[in-house]
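seq as requested:
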Amino acid sequence: MTLHATPADAGQRLDLFLHDRLTEFSRARLQEWIKAGRVLVDGAAAKPSQPLRGGESVEVNPAAPAPLRATAEDLPVEILYEDADVIAVNKPAGMTVHPGAGKSSGTLVNALVHRFAALSGVSGELRPGIVHRLDKDTSGVLLVARHDAAHRSLAAQFAGREVEKIYVALVEGQLRKDTGRIEKPIARDPVRRVRMTARLDKGRAALTEYRVLRRYKEFTFLEVRIGTGRTHQIRVHLASIGHPVAGDRLYGARGDGHERFFLHARRIAFRQPTSGDPVTVEAPLAPELECWLQGLL
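struct tokens:
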């Protein structure tokens, strides 16, 4: 398809121009097409951030749509707990939880679809079984529903704040108090859209509590409990009090040579969907995080 920029479009970024004209496609997908050379401006390849002058001819060659369901892949996945309703896995850092824009393979869901015959369909065919998520570079325990009734039970427990979620985090600097509570609303950062922020007076309510486990010369090792599950919540809240998660450069931590940031979902406790019995699952600290701590001694 060919689009024509008008003088009114002068100064607008190419990706935003396309997003305004091709509203049926996400901005992320349009950016992927630009980077893949599927968008030409006056016959030449361009960058997503390229400003238009007005009057250009923009040729778009769309890529095939993403698959409508997650495909099975024989990928390693560590099972921490399993019954007829629920699976708890130990997600490694670097693995995305489910397919999405620009990511259709190599995810935890791809591995789960290969490993298990059936999973809950409540979240759709690209996210079978997924009740909650962890950031790509956060490791640790994550629950998966095996069928729809289990999914609805777990989702209700998360919504009712009945699920106990305990993390460990290494943060920069020395916290003054051994325990603390952060209650700041979290919203999308209006300037850097890939970030969240707790510096506005608006957003979704969020609660984070922490307890010091060990103090190092330049870092503090924390146990963190969250009462809500907002996007990047722990990372945003700890950065908001001047102690970003170690290695988390998106939220202001210094680069220190590590390939990930230090945040790990250590423990989750919930009610078994059928019996109602309490279940607690723990994920051992990832080996690279163990080595990180050892290097601080």
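Helices lie at 14-21, 27-35, 108-115, 148-159, 233-240, 287-294.
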